[in-house]
Structure formats: C-alpha cells, structure tokens
Amino acid sequence: MATSEIEQLWISQFQENLGALRKVAGWTTQQLANELGVARQTISNLETGRSPMTKLQYLALRTVFSAEIAECGNRELAKIIKALVDDPIELRIKELETADNTKANSATEPDAPSEADDARPVAPASKPAAGRRARKNKERPLSTAMQALAVITAALASGTAAGVLTYLLFPNGKPGKNGRR
User: For residues 108 and 96, what is the distance between their CA atoms, to the nearest angstrom?
Assistant: First the structure.
C-alpha cells in the first residue's frame, strides 16, 4: 500500500470522527473554527462529509487537538483519538500488508503441475511480475508531520510526554507567543 493511500486512510478516519472528537474536547463548532482560524461552516462541512478533509486540514486539526491534550491534560481526548482513529487505522494497515504479502507470495509460488503442463513447452525462467511490482511499490515512510503527530498522540494517550510537550508549548506556563501575553 502506498504512503499516500495510508495517509488518506488516516485522514478519512479522522474526518469520520471529527464531530465526536470536537465534543470530547468540549468545543462548539465555532470554538474549533476559531482555534484553526477558519469559518464555522468549514468545520461543519468537514464533520458532515460535505467537504473532503485535506492533508493540511488534518495536520492542523491533529495539532490543535494535541495542544488541547497537552495544555489541559485531557487524557480522555487522547484515548478517544487513539481508539477511534489511530488503532483502527493501524489495524487496517496491518490487514492490508498481510493481504499484500499473501498475494505476493501466492503469485510467486508456482501451482502444482498438471498433466497439461507436461505437454507445453517450458518458457525460460523470468522474475515473477508480482515480485517486480512489490519492489517497485516499496513503501516510503509516512511524512515527517504524520509521523510526529502519530507519536505525539500516542505518547499523550499514555501520558508519558504530556508534561514535556506542555513545557515546550508553554515554557512560562502561559498561552501566547513564546509564553508571553
């Protein structure tokens, strides 16, 4: 499965659950729109599926939710994101990788010879097409931003990085640019 397909799975799963995540964070549609600097209608369209979520919107939303988790210590939100978005996608990716490996293995393993095979001339050996496709479609890692958000969300869900991230985001303990108001 290509990286862009994996990213799209993540984005789609996040969009399907955006309304629930917003409510767990305790925000109205307008409040989330204000956090992102977009119109309320943009959030509404994303939640209802009238507009497809872009990668940029996904990254912005994940960042806003991660900041909420760090700032307010909202571990419930972190657990919900992990349960509704991250875990199902990771499971789906494993299933797809298993299916791809099964297809590749079955395509490269010859079937048992039949009587008709004995009558046909033998072609020179060549590399199986599936093997070439598998090498050609070698997976690129997820983009750095996608990896960072996945790691941050997972860490926040476990609670191990909440303090560090909060300090990095708000070194003086106050929101605002560089901790100043």
Answer: 18
